[in-house]
Specification:
Elements lengths: L3 E2 L12 H9 L7 H9 L6 E9 L6 E8 L8 E6 L6 H14 L8 E5 L4 H6 L21 H13 L3 E9 L2 H14 L4 E2 L8 E5 L5 H11 L13 E2 L2 E2 L5 E4 L7 H4 L4 E7 L8 H20 L2
Length: about 300
């Protein structure tokens, strides 16, 4: 029998009001530094990329300046690739992997692609180590018109203002033990629902778009990542986090319908990565490198089209 999780904030079965949202917000604490762990690393990016401040989040523990990078030598004949990380700020390797790619690898592909890279979309979430923003809104369900999450709205505007067609978009994420321990129970409590015990996949997987799954590209990404870390097996029912496994290490979601980041760009090729940092089989460095391998796996595939 599945265990029901009870969250310590709110009344079971009742949606949160502003009172519970405020109670939740006040219970959050800063656990690490966006300035020290993210902004300082941006200073190490080589000058082949232009650093652009595209906004600022004016939160009580902030302000949080938001930065993206774009290829300085822009070639209008090259396809444009968008890389986003830290939409869920607590998913560390998404942020650090994007920065690592910028620092060490991206320049190797600049003759073939233009890049737009937003390494840390949700810096408050990064510092608090949380999925939501201070208003208990999930940025990765908020990539919609008139978005309720400024994190989502600002990065969408940044990309829109560049006025270019996005050929491919990879959004870097993690699935962690805290999803089951904290974030799913919190979501159910916020929405007045029951939360039943689930499972966390041990390994890397990707989420393609139900409407445009890009099967061959997903295969190439899995093959690239498999050189760095292990791929999540399907559960006994043939699913990963409740979704049907369509090929080794790949599931699909309707990205745009759900307001997910990888769907807003309307790119021809899209994917979302999911790394498992709590695995006994993977180190922090391997998780960061897995994100880089996912990006390069995608790029190597696209180069051959």
């Amino acid at each position: 029998m599945q265990q029901i999780h009870i969250y310590p904030i709110g009344t079971p079965g009742q949606k949160w009001t502003q009172k519970e949202v405020q109670q939740w917000h006040e219970s959050r604490n800063i656990q690490r530094s966006y300035k020290d762990e993210v902004l300082s690393k941006m200073d190490e990016i080589n000058d082949s990329f232009e650093r652009v401040q595209y906004g600022e989040l004016d939160y009580s523990s902030g302000p949080y300046p938001l930065f993206g990078f774009k290829s300085k030598q822009w070639n209008s004949k090259n396809p444009t690739v968008l890389v986003t990380g830290g939409v869920h700020g607590y998913e560390t390797s998404g942020v650090q992997g994007a920065l690592l790619f910028l620092k060490e690898t991206a320049s190797q592909y600049q003759s073939d692609f233009n890049f737009i890279i937003a390494p840390c979309v949700s810096p408050w979430g990064y510092e608090i180590i949380n999925r939501w923003n201070p208003k208990a809104i999930d940025p990765n369900r908020s990539f919609v018109e008139n978005s309720p999450a400024p994190e989502s709205a600002l990065v969408m505007q940044f990309v829109k203002d560049l006025g270019v067609e996005i050929f491919a978009h990879i959004d870097l994420h993690e699935t962690t033990d805290s999803d089951e321990e904290e974030f799913r129970p919190a979501l159910a409590a916020r929405d007045g629902l029951e939360c039943f015990e689930g499972s966390i996949p041990d390994g890397f997987y990707t989420v393609g778009d139900t409407e445009n799954p890009c099967e061959e590209m997903q295969t190439a990404i899995i093959a690239s990542v498999e050189k760095v870390t292990h791929i999540a097996p399907a559960d006994p029912d043939g699913t990963i986090i409740g979704s049907k496994v369509v090929q080794h290490g790949v599931i699909n979601y309707p990205l745009e319908k759900l307001g997910l980041c990888a769907g807003f760009s309307k790119a021809k090729y899209t994917t979302t990565t999911e790394v498992y940092p709590d695995s006994a089989k993977a180190t922090v460095e391997e998780c960061n490198r897995a994100q880089v391998a996912a990006i390069t796996g995608m790029l190597d595939y696209l180069k051959e089209l």
